[in-house]
Amino acid sequence: DCQDSKPCVMRAARHLRLRRFLEQHPEERERRVVNERTRVANFSSQQRASVEQRWRAVTGNPACLNDCGLKGACVKGLCVCADGWVGLDCMSRSTLSDVPDSGGFMYVVDVPAHQGHMQMRGAYKGAYGDAIYHSEVVFTGRLMRDWSLRTLKRAEAKLFYVPTWMYYTQNNVLNGDHRYRELLNLQLPGNASQRVFYFSGDRGACGVPRGSTFISHWGLTVPWKHRSDPQNRNSSRDGEPCAVPGSDIIVPMYFHFNHTGATQLSRREYECDLFFAGSYGPPGCRGKECDDPHYSQGVRQMVKEQHGKRRGFCLFKRAPNTYFSRSRFCLISSGNGFGSRLYHAMNYNCVPVIIQPAVMQPFEGIVPYERFSLRFSHADIPRLHTLLRNVSAEAHWQMRRQLAIWRHALDWNELAYDLVKYELCLRAGLSCTSLRTGWESKLDAVADQVLGLGRVVRERSRSL
C-alpha cells in the first residue's frame, strides 16, 4: 500500500517474491528464523544502545518492560532479575509461596526471551520496522504495569496472555499458524479458551486453529480463501474464519493522529467526491500477478473499472496525503489484509466509505461506525456515484463532527488501550461496568472539548 514512494514499491516487490518463496519452502523459513535469532543475540553494545534509544522514542516506555519491576537490572533491553524474582519484567516469584496480590484477571505468560522478546527489542533497523505494527508493543508495555488488568497469581487468572511478537519473529505478511505452533510447544497454562494471542500481521489470525481469543487488526469473518467471495463462508473444507465476532478482538493499528485539527471543522467545497490512492494489484506485482482478483477483495479493481474516468472520482496510484482533506469521501478497502486508509481518512476528517465485505472494523459493536462512515458491498459499487451524491450536505457535516470525536477511540495514545481492556473483561465473563464507565467518561470529555457533544456520546454508549 505504498502511496507515493517508489523505493517502497520496490521493497514491496522484493518482499512479495520472498514471501512466496518462503511459503513454498518452510525449511528455508525456519533456517532464516534461527539465523535472525542468532544475529540479535550477537548485537554489539553500540547496536543495543541504539535500540534502547529507539524503543524509548517509539513507546515512551522505559527501556525494559515495566522497568524490570524495580526488582532487576535492565541489561541490553532485557531484565536480569534479583534472586527470588523471574519473568520478562521480574515481577513473578521464583516460588509459588509468596506471590503478591494485584487484583487483575489476566496472567502474562513468561515466554522465553529468545521466543520473540529479544527479536522485538532489536531485530529491525529504524524504529522497530514499520510503525503500523507496533500496537502489540504498546499494548504489552501498558499491560505489564496495569495491575487492574494483570494478575501475578496464575491460579486466580481468568485469561492468559501469550506475548506473540509475530511481526518481529517472522514478518508481517505470513499466516500466523507457524508462530502459533511454536508457542503451543511451550506447554502454556490454562485451556485454549482462556488464552489470548496477539497477531499484528497483515492477515491477522488467518490460518490459525480456532479456540482461543485472538487480538488482531484484520477482522475477516470468513476463511482467507473466500475473502473476495464471502457468500461461500460455510465451506468448512477451506479452513476456518480469520476472525470470529464475540470471540476475537479487532484493534486499530498504531497510528499518530493529529487531533489539533479536530476543532477546526468547517463547511467547505471539495475537489473530489471520492478519493483513493494505492495499488490495484499486489504491491510489487509483475505481469499476470497484478490481475489477482482476490487482492483488496476485488474492491479497488472494481471501483477503478466502474468509475476510473468519472468526474469527481480521484483515483490514483500515488498522491499526496493532502487529498484526504480535499475530498468529500475517502475509499476504505482491504489490501493483502488490513489497510491503513481508515486512519488516514479519520486523521483528515474525510468521511470513510468502507467497502470491506465480511470484515469487522476495530472495536465494532462499541464504536458506532454508522455515525461517521458509509458502508457498501460489491453490489453497490456500480452505483456508488449515486449513493454518494444522495448524502446531503447536512448529513455529511454531522458525520464529520462525529468523526472528530470517535477517532480518539482508535488512537493508542488515547482510548484504544481502554477499549481493549474492556473487551478482555467481557471475554473473561466479569462485571465490566466500571471499565465501561471509565472509557465513556473519557470519550465524553473529548466530545465536550471538541464539539460540546458529551451527552450525545454518553447516550449512544448506553444504548450498546
TrEMBL record:
Q: Which Pfam families match?
A: Exostosin_GT47
Supply the alphabetized keyword list: Glycoprotein
User: Is Glycoprotein there in the keyword field?
Assistant: yes
One GO molecular function term?
Answer: glycosyltransferase activity
Locate the transmembrane regions by residue number. Answer: none
Q: Could you tell me which InterPro entries the record lists for this protein?
A: Exostosin, Exostosin_GT47
Q: Where is the Exostosin GT47 domain?
A: 107-390
Family per record: Belongs to the glycosyltransferase 47 family.
| Protein name listed in UniProt | Exostosin GT47 domain-containing protein
Species of origin reads: Haptolina ericina
